[in-house]
Design a protein that fits this description.
Largest sheet: 5 strands, antiparallel
CATH class: Alpha Beta
Number of domains: 1
Bound molecules: coenzyme A
CATH architecture: Roll
């Protein structure tokens, strides 16, 4: 039985920050059924995470792992997709960024969370060898 005193859940809102990237889902990003590819979204999230990681690491990074990836809602052609990145953890040579993607659909103004995941990057030198993340 529902608790009459329970408050209704607060609507989820996007992070209070500029997105790392913002783009539009286009027909070229669909599968033969007309749905946006999950891989397209992972690509946008990876780009977003890399911009945050490169800035913090002060150099070249490569993606070493993608974990806790969840597709909450579908993305449709024409959706405005914004990817927000926040630093979750800094290791010796790695940085883990939490990425959330939010979509605005059609003429709607309310964004909906469509994906989230943890993207880990390693700072590397020109030969691809791991390098320490500088202290801030
Ligand atoms: C990333 C890479 C340079 C790491 O080299 P490595 O010899 O495995 O280096 P290490 O074992 O010292 O690991 C480096 C860091 O990555 C972390 N790491 C390695 N594998 C990981 C995994 N599966 N998940 C999370 N972190 C991982 C380590 O914990 C370490 O972090 P820390 O220094 O902060 O503690 C190497 O694996 C690589 O070149 N991978 C391919 C990257 C790439 O091409 N990405 C694009 C994909 S198309």
């Amino acid at each position: 039985m529902p608790d009459a005193a329970a408050k209704p859940a607060e609507p989820e809102v996007p992070p209070d920050a500029d997105p790392a990237i913002r783009t539009i889902a286009m027909p070229a990003d669909t599968n033969p059924h007309g749905d946006i590819f999950g891989g397209w979204l992972i690509c946008q999230m990876d780009l977003a995470g890399a911009t945050v990681a490169v800035r913090r690491a002060g150099g070249r990074v490569v993606t070493v792992a993608i974990t806790a990836m969840t597709f909450h809602r579908p993305v449709c052609v024409g959706d405005e997709v914004s990817c927000y990145g926040s630093i979750e953890k800094i290791g010796t040579t790695s940085i883990t960024i939490k990425i959330e993607s939010w979509a605005r659909r059609g003429t709607g103004t309310t964004p909906i969370k469509v994906t989230e995941g943890l993207f880990t990057y390693v700072r590397v030198d020109l030969d691809g060898r791991p390098q320490p993340i500088p202290a801030q």
